[in-house]
Recover the amino acids of this structure.
C-alpha cells in the first residue's frame, strides 16, 4: 500500500499498475469519480487521469493499518487540465480505504468531495478573475 502511494506520486502508469492485483477493484464514492475493476482497465485509464491532473501529489495526513486493511487520510494536489483551458490548481482532502493481498492493493475505495474540485475550478472561471 505504501508502494502504491509512492507510485502514484511518480506519475508512472506502469509503476502504479504494478502495485495492484489482476482483479483490483477501484471504487470512487464521489459522483464525479468513475469506478472500475481489473488491473488492465486501471492501467488503461491511468494516462488520461495523470494527464488531467498534472503534477499529481498525494500527501499522507494519517495512516491506520489493521491486518490486510488500511485507511489513509490524504491531501491531493495537482494542476487540473480541462479541455484546452488553462490548468487550475486543485487541493482536495480525502480518504482511501484499502484491502491488500499478497503485498498488492486488491481494492481501493476513494472518498473525496468532487464539489470541492468543482468550486476551485469555478473560482478560476468566475468573471473578473
Amino acid at each position: 500500500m505504501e508502494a502504491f502511494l509512492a507510485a502514484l506520486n511518480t506519475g508512472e502508469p506502469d509503476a502504479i499498475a504494478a502495485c495492484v492485483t489482476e482483479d483490483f477493484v477501484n471504487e470512487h464514492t464521489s459522483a464525479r469519480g468513475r469506478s472500475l475493476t481489473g488491473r488492465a482497465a486501471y492501467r488503461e485509464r491511468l494516462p488520461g487521469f495523470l494527464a488531467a491532473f498534472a503534477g499529481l501529489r498525494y500527501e499522507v495526513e494519517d495512516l491506520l493499518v489493521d491486518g490486510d486493511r488500511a485507511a489513509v487520510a490524504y491531501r491531493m494536489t495537482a494542476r487540473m487540465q480541462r479541455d484546452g483551458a488553462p490548468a487550475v490548481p486543485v487541493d482536495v482532502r480525502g480518504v482511501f480505504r484499502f484491502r491488500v493481498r499478497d503485498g498488492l492493493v486488491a481494492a481501493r475505495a476513494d472518498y473525496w468531495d468532487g464539489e470541492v474540485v468543482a468550486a476551485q475550478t469555478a473560482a478560476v472561471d468566475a468573471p473578473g478573475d
User: Anything to note?
Assistant: The first helix runs from residue 2 to 10. The chain is about 30% helix and 50% strand. The first strand starts at residue 20 and ends at 28.
